[in-house]
Input
Amino acid sequence: MWIHRHHQLPYLLFFVFAVLFSSSLGDVGTASLYNPPYLPTACYNNDVSQFPANNLFASAGEGIWDNGASCGRQYLVRCLSATVPGTCVQGKIIQVKIVDRAASSVSRPSRAGTTMVLSATAFGEIANVSANVINIEFQQV
Ligand SMILES: *[C@@H]1O[C@H](CO)[C@@H](O)[C@H](O)[C@H]1NC(C)=O
Output
């Protein structure tokens, strides 16, 4: 039986980490990034005063665009994983404001069809910007 007890530790640790890192934000999706020029065209008719001062904003993918109702919504986002190990900044959560529609943004996403397209600043807060796409967990605030 001592062997059995000995081998419980890895499982216990796994459980602890699973709980810690799953304290979840809700939904799972993907994020790409876009670079300047930034224009909040679909949401704010190019009114650049709508950009948050910290540059943490995003364009909505079709899945969350919600026929324009997503404009101005705030999302908590964290990087879950990517193709290249070490891409995510572990434990970092950002809050972004939706300012545009990814499908029609002036500056094109690094990857088409993602859940949201983060500003380069926002993407760089949670992941290595060398990645074109990351898996994310997100939740509307
Ligand atoms: C970001 O990713 C690139 C390409 O994989 C790598 O060369 C670089 O060292 C990474 N940067 C950091 C800060 O991890």
